[in-house]
Amino acid sequence: MTDIAVLGTGTMGAAMARNLLRAGHQVRVWNRSAERAAPLADAGATLADSPVAAVDGAGIVLTMLFDLDATREVVQDAAAAFAPGTLWLQTGTVGPEGTAALATWAGAHALDYLDAPVLGTRGPAEEGTLVVLASGDPGLGLRAEPVFAAIGSRVVWAGARPGAASALKLACNAWVLTLTTATAQSLALAAAQDVDPMLFLEAIAGGGTDSAYAQIKGRAMLTERLAPSFALDGGLKDLGLIADAARLAGMPDDLLAAVRELYAEASAAGHGHDDIAAVHVALRPRRPVRGS
Questions:
Q1: Is residue 98 part of a domain?
Q2: Cβ atoms 36, 8 nearer than 8 A
Q3: Do 119 and 192 share a domain, yes or no?
Q4: pLDDT for position 292
Q5: DSSP sequence for 153-194
Q6: Distance between alpha carbon 200 and the CA centroid of its chain, in Å?
Q7: Are residues 134 and 192 in the same domain?
Q8: At which of 105, 127, 159 does a domain end?
Q9: What are residue 134's phi and psi, to 5 degrees?
Q10: Are 78 and 105 in contact (CB under 8 A)?
Q11: Is the Cα torsion angle 120, 173, 113, 39 positive or negative in sign?
């Protein structure tokens, strides 16, 4: 049994905390909006009223916060309560540059740090089947393994350099966000030509061009079932990190810029808290459909 503090209990963090509790760990939770953490008390978590109270005495601290600024602010607030040698598992998406900054801060405070963003949305988080992307000192893997086993189905080690896992996470999210946009485009193109867009999903089903993700997101678009498993504004934030990483690597970012513009348009239309499938609203025909 490990004493673990979870800082950030939104959709992902709350699910991870529940799976840690199911695995028998002692879990303390904190969230800026206390009502988001409160239901975890019924599952056995200890509610903390501050980051300091959550971290004090914890052997492992897991952060799952929205962005770099939020993560930096929260751990700085908790700095006085971190014991030397505490293992900090940073699971949010902050990008490789952000991860490097956090790793430097961790080193200055005598903390053991692993870059450990996760792949998966609400369903895998609740099922404990996330894919953990990890990088940092391989020797810390044994200490982290009970946590990773509780929240994920497998771990992909990206290397010893903190930031490598976050770089891999951006590559994965670039795929997810672009694929979702491409699915929306094909559905919109079919509809604009007076073809039932569901036939697009039927046409690719089971073939080499099929994708389970395209099927899930495509059906969400067609039925307007947009409850968030990956919130659109979170995807938009990630696209900013992805574009920054591409530019730093000397890559052209034309495709990323176009995808980001569509997510920004959907967010401006009021869909920022909906699922990323809501990007389809930015691809609706801008003139009457033929025959209408």
A1: yes
A2: no
A3: no
A4: 45
A5: EEEEEEESSTTHHHHHHHHHHHHHHHHHHHHHHHHHHHHHTT
A6: 28
A7: no
A8: 159
A9: -125, 145
A10: no
A11: negative
| Top-confidence residue, 108 or 1 | 108
- Whether residues 271 and 172 fall in one domain: yes
Q: What's the one-letter identity of residue 180? A: T
DSSP for 234-276, written as a single string: HHHHHHHHHHHHHHHTT---HHHHHHHHHHHHHIIIIITTSBG
Amino acid code (one letter) for 59: G
List the CATH number of the domain containing 19. Answer: 3.40.50.720
Asked if residues 6 and 26 have their Cβ atoms less than 8 Å apart, the reply is no
The three-state secondary structure class of 69 is helix
Handedness of CA 48, 49, 55, 61 (dihedral sign): positive
Query: Pairing relation of β-strands 130-136 and 112-115?
Result: antiparallel
Contact 280, 188 (CB under 8 A): yes
Cβ–Cβ < 8 Å for 153, 128: yes
Give the number of domains in the chain: 2
Q: Helix or strand or coil: residue 127?
A: helix
The per-residue pLDDT for range 70-93, each reduced to its tens digit, is 999 999 999 999 999 999 999 999
pLDDT tens-digit profile of 187-231?
Answer: 999 999 999 999 999 999 999 999 999 999 999 999 999 999 999
